[in-house]
Structure prediction request, 131 residues.
Amino acid sequence: MVKPLPEDEWKLKTNAQYQEAIKILINLATASLALPVVFLKELAGSPNGSRFVDHLKPSAYWSWAFLFASLLFGMLFYWASAKFVKVVCGGPEDHSENWFEKVRDATGGAAVVCFLAGLVSFLIFFRTRTL
Prediction:
C-alpha cells in the first residue's frame, strides 16, 4: 500500500472515526433486531399456547425493515470507506476520492436515519401493543 501524502493523513483519521461510529451503529442495530421478540417473550408475558406472530403489529415489522436497511447501508458505508482509503493512498479506482467520500457520507447518514426510524417503530409497537 502506498503511503498517503502528509496533507491527507487527516482524511484517513477522520475516516477511521466514521468507521468506529458505524461499527457501534451496526452492533446496536443487530442487537435491536431482537427487541420485539424479547419484549413479547419476556416482558409482555404472552399467554401460553399463543403464537408469537399473533401479537406482532405492523410497527414491529417496520422496525425490522428499518433496522435491516440500517445494516445494509452500514455495509455499503464500509465498502465506500475502504475504496476511499484506497484512493487517498494512491490506489487505482474507477471513481474519484470525492465520489467515494460522497457515497460514504450518504450511506453513513442513511444508516443512522434507518436505525433511528427502526427504534421509533419499535417504540410505537411497544406503546400500542395489546396482549
Q: What stands out?
A: The chain has one domain: 8-45+55-128.
